[in-house]
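Amino acid chain
________________
===
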Amino acid sequence: MHITTRGRKMRQGQTSLLINDQVEVITGKDKGRVGKILKIDRAAHQAVVERINMITKHQKPAGEQQPGEIINREASIHISNLMLVCPECAKTVRIGKKILEDGVKVRMCKSCGATLEKSTK
């Protein structure tokens, strides 16, 4: 199934970003800020990034034991607004795929050519 997002089509669930990746926001109110991905919703093309897109939630009291409070937390952001930060060259980079000698497909940095994860075999 194809989902249209801002003039281009993306297949449902298609993304090269993973949890714990270091990403930079490339557009929006938090442009230029860097954080770690905490959660990804592949169906909606959304990600929750640490200390990015903070919102204030007013929570009602839940009985006498728990009082009402104001909670600051991260809201989701569209993955098209995020770009991976390469741990080797420390720049925002595009991601490519590479097959290693042992047959494992890994992500690679298109700028410096470094692999972004370790081989598990």
The mean pLDDT is 90. DSSP finds no helices and twelve strands in the chain.
